[in-house]
Every structure is written in structure tokens, then in C-alpha cells.
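thought: fold this chain, then report.
action: predict
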Amino acid sequence: MVNLSDISARETLAQHTIDAIVGGTCCDYFSLFGIHATGSPEVKVIRAFLPGAVQVDIVGAADDEPLASAARLHDDGLFEAFVASRGFFPYRLRVHYPLATVTVVDTYGFGVQLGEMDCYLFNQGTQERAWEFLGANHRRVDGIDGVLFAVWAPNASRVAIVGDFNHWDDRVHVLRKNHECGIWELFIPTDLSGCHYKFAITAAGGSQLPLRADPFARRMQLRPSTASVVSGKGAYSWQDQQWMQERGDRQRRDAPISIYEVHLGSWRRTGNGQEFLTYQDFAEQLVQYVVDMGFSHIQLMPVSEHPFDGSWGYQPIGMFAPSSRFGDPDGLRHLIDTAHRNSIGVLLDWVPGHFPTDEHGLGVFDGTSLYEHADPRRGFHPDWNTLIFDYDRPEVVSYLLSNALYWLSEFHFDGLRFDAVASMLYLDYSRKAGEWLANEYGGRENLGAIKLLRLVNERAYHHYPDIMMIAEESTAWPGVTHMTSSGGLGFGYKWNLGWMNDTLRYMARDSIHKQYHANEITFGLFYAFNENFVLPISHDEVVHGKCSLLEKMPGDDWQKFANLRAFLTFMWSHPGKKLLFMGCEFAQRIEWNHDQSLDWHLLSDGRHTGIQSLVRDLNRVYDALPALYTHDADYRGFEWLEAAHPSGAVFVFARRDPDSGAMAIIACNFTPTVYENFRVGVPEPGDYLECINSNSEFYGGTGQGNLGRLSAEACDSHNRPWSLQLTLPPLATLVLQWEQEASGNQKAPGNQEKATVVDAEPFAESLPGSKQSRGPETL
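observation:
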């Protein structure tokens, strides 16, 4: 006969162990709590720590039959029961509180949940789906639903999960450490959807660190609160199958790609301009607007959760959590889904270069430099006062690789724009001599970052070959968009920041000075075909004292608007895909302010609606003329016809599609002088349709032009037997489509219609001047 009293007296917890549990310093809960063997093969011991409980009974898992009543070892809620049983058995805990009695599954009654291969790949730097086992994931274990919490903190001595569900008491749910991979885990057998939580981490030396947000959290609280949130169990039902099937054709390098860059917090606001729109609002309003304007893509500035509005999202804390400013993750999915159902792609601005120093974030996460490089010469960014990821650490590589694939997989983003790539590539970026640490070969290249960029691009394109991976890279680093197999970084596109700087500098000059700086227009064509470029007029160009795009232009108000129209038409005709920041499409007057809505009221002014109408028509003509986009990265798609005019401000070039024979002539006059009877040689005889005249009265110009159509004459000019005699309006750009005679006339641009699910009219009517007002009658 087993004497439970004797066994209990011999094997009850020692006082120092009780003190450690109650004092919050005990590290190894799994060796103490749950069901365990005793010195007698016929007796098992079950322990539980349940603060606030006055009594705990052990009951059968199947029938709730009482098996034993636990003794209370400490008034804080530490209980222990010895049960006569030769084998381990399923059980539950009936817990009596002063005001209620509940029956629960014992959290410490489950074995290890982490998969061996998952941990191995994570430690190797090749884990692509780490979010599926790290963070807070709904699991069903032994027929019981719950949430698996897991966090990488290899140098911590203790990790606990705290949250709404345990009154933020770090003594209740202490995690188990997998010593081989450094990951701590705990399965809590209850549905915690919507609960707030953080990790309570004790450093190796015993010091208690500030509570940490979950690096893999799928949701986070709205700032200034900083807790992570357990996501719901339901799966979003996508309706974008047709888009996903056709995406490859819509995002080919020979496709017309026109991107509208958006900061969700300031595109438009409600409630007297103080309240953010929701993801649902954007699905209804932003998508309708983009469809109406004719853009092919939306590019969202970073939507990962970030504590400081003024960072614009570029200092993220929750890399896996869409910002709660605008709603929940399914709301973002709905926005993307709606865009796709309206044939609009959505790109995400991704920030793998640095992260902020907020105490609830990744910095010194487990008491050591875990995510950031330990040496501040590599681990701290002096320009932004942020920490830099340690790209040489395999687990950090797995974290960033998984994050990139997470957005592409879970949210159906159509590509990623990598922020600040130059700051990742160069160890001496923005550092003086002596402030940076050379690589192993004595060079300034960040070899770990290069390897990471190549890996992310390779794996992303492997899984999703029809996406767009775009680099914001501001130097002459070779082969950014070349294949990794040939030594490139493997991006699909690179922002052409050289073109942007040169052309904006040129456009800001008074006409009389432009004659000395024509190279600022022409130089970009020397390297235009070395990479696959996007021409970016982004948020960075309209802040911090740089002026709005309109106010960069010289002259009086009439000249500013005319210059802007000429520039935008030149941009849409130049080799390279297009990107335009919100507000520039209607000539926002003041610099962008992230704290307020765009100035939509400006659209009551015909000059601003004229710019908006021009951008809308530019997108339509661009989409309809293959010569303007099929050979952006091929010298055969471009030919100078006039690049040496004495004014330094008149340029004529041809854009071609060699495969179809399509051709367009672009004539730019960046002077306030009208050039009548301007003769320029052209490659082919025939008629030329004036598709766009930025000086059209429809856009706010004077209306001088070429009456919609010109015929080439057999008159030598510019070493060509055929030429056009043009009227070049002041401060204007013309787009002329060559009408092929042999193959018959092409369909006039603008007559092709895209399939549209949403009706753009309601939102268009809410913005003055948003109605489609066309240019010359040829449209």
C-alpha cells in the first residue's frame, strides 16, 4: 500500500525552490510543473502555480472525476498534489477562485512543440517561414486548441510570457528553452485571440530587461501602447485569383508600369483632418482614385508597425504587423484584394536596413546585441540614430528572409521596394575615417548585406517569379538588377536616383541658365540601359525644405505650372518605369506633411485640375503606346533626334518598339519661347498623331500646338531624308505617335479600356476637377 504522506514529505518542493517560484526567479518550470514521476513508481506528482486560486483539484480529463485535491504550498497560488498511479495519465485542473470555479488544461502538460528542421534552418540562415512557428501561432495539440508562443533569445536565463490572460504576472507562464537553437517556447491551451502580450526576459546575469514586444507579432497595439496582440484564427478569403494568374503579364519588364506612391496616414483624413482612414476606407477610396487616374500600381510607404509617426514607417518595431493605425491585418488584405480585383498591383516599401532603439523593440533583445551588430561602427546608424541588423548572423538572415516572404505570401503584395540599400552595401556609409569597420578583406563592402540581398531576391523570385523586387540604391553599384548568377544583386528594378537629381536640378534653373546644363538632361541616357530603372519622384523629393514639385519650378505661377506639365510629360516619355508620389499628380503647393491630409481643396483651381488631367492622360497614352515602355532597358528603344540645340533646352527623341515597329516622337521645349516652323528629322515618313500636348488648354496651357496631326515631309534635316515642321509651344512637351502605313493605323491611344470592378465616379465627384477632361481632340 502506497503511503502518499511519506512520499509527499520526502519529495515536496524545497523552500528555496518555492521562494524562487514565488519571487519570479525560477527558470525551469517544466522540470517542476505538470505531471512528474516520484521516487515511487506508483506515485506521480502534479504541481501548478495559479495566483489567486484558493483550491485546486485534479480531475480526469475524460470525465472530470476527482482524482486528488492539491495542497497549497504558498498563499500566492502554488499547489502540489501526489496521485497514486503507476503510469502517466491525462488530467485537468479544477481551479477554485473566490468568485468562480473553472476547469482548465494544464499548460505544463505538453511536450516540445518546435520542429527540429525548423530550428535547424533558422540557425542556418535559410529559414523562409519562421513566422509559422515563432511569435504567437494558433495550434491544435493532442486535440486541444491553443496558442504556441516562441521567441529567439539564446542568451537569456529566463523568458516568460505576460499579458491580459495572466494579469501581466511573469511568474505564471515561463517558457521552455531549446538549448540547441536558443528558442524558448510554451503552448498555452486556450484561445487567446485578441489578447495583448509581451515577453519578460531575464538577461544571463540575472537583470530584468524591459518588457519586449514580440519580434514576430502579427498584430500590435496602437501607439503609444506597445504590446503585441494575438491574431485571430480565421483565414482571409482571397478573391484575387484572376489577378494572381495574370500578374506575370502585367509586371513584365516590357509592360507599362506607372506607380502611385502613398503614405496612408496623410493621403486623406477624416474627422476634421485628425483621424486616419481605415484599410476599408482605402479599399473604397484610394483604389477608385488610382483606377480613375490610370496608374498600374500603388506603392505603400512602410506599413509595418512603428511607434513614431514622424518616421513615416521607416523605423519599424513590428516587422510582421501591419500598422494598427488603419485597422487589423485582414483590413490590409482587403485593401490589396480590392486593388487586385480592379487590376491594380500593390507594392510594399520594406525596411531591412535598420530599426529603432525603443526599449520594447529588438535592441539588446536578450541582454546582448542579438539582432544588431555588437560593434557600433557596424551596428549603429549615425544619421538616423537607429540600430543596424547584423547581416552576418544566420538567425537575423532567417528573420529578414522570412519577413520578406511573409508579406509576399500572406498579403499577396506584388513586390517589395527595399529602402536605403546603399546604407546596407557600404560599411562606411555616412561615416568618417575611423568610424567604420572594414570587412575581412579590408574593403568597405558589407559582405553580409550583399549576401542577404541576393538571398532574399533569389528566394522571392523562386517562389513568386512574377513579382517586382525594387532597390532604392543611390550609388553606382554595378549589377543591381543583374542576376545573382552573374554577380548581380538580383533585383528586378532599381530607382534611377541619378536621373531624378539631374532632371530636377535642371528643371529648377531659369531658362536663361539651362543652355549651360543640357547635360543634366542628356547624361542619364549614357547609363539608362545598364539597369532596369524606375524613374522616381518620391516622398523624399518634397520634404525637408526641398519644396513641393510645383514650387521647384522657376518663374511666375503660369511658368511653374507649365514647367511642371512639361517635366511630367518628359518623365512619362523617358525610358524607365514611372513612380509619382501622392499630391504631385495635382501639383500640391506646399511640402508634404505626414501629419495632415493632402490639399484636395486645390482641385477647385483649374490649374491644379489641369495637372491632374494631364497625369491621367499620360497614364492612358503610356498604356496605349508600346513604344513608350517595351524597351525601357534596351538602347534599341531610344534614339536622340535633337540633343544639341543652342538653347540647351530643346530636346527631341524617338521611343521605339523594335518588335512591332511602333514609334513615338517626343519634343521638349523647356524655354518660354514659342518655336514655330521648327524642323526636326524623323526616322520614318508618314503621319504623326499629336497624342499629348502639355500646353493644351485642357491642362491649363495656351493651346498652341499642331492641331492634332503632322505629316513628315521629304525634306532633309538632322541627317535624315524625312522631317517634321513643328510648332513647339513654350515650356511644353509633345508626344507624337507615328501611324504605321504598312501595317495599318494603330488604335488611337486612350480608346483601350481596362476592366474595372469599382465605380470610380463617386470618389471622383468628391474631388473637384477629378472628372476626366481630355487633351486634344485626338484623344
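thought: worth noting. Residues 742-779 have pLDDT under 50 and may be disordered.
final: C-alpha cells above.
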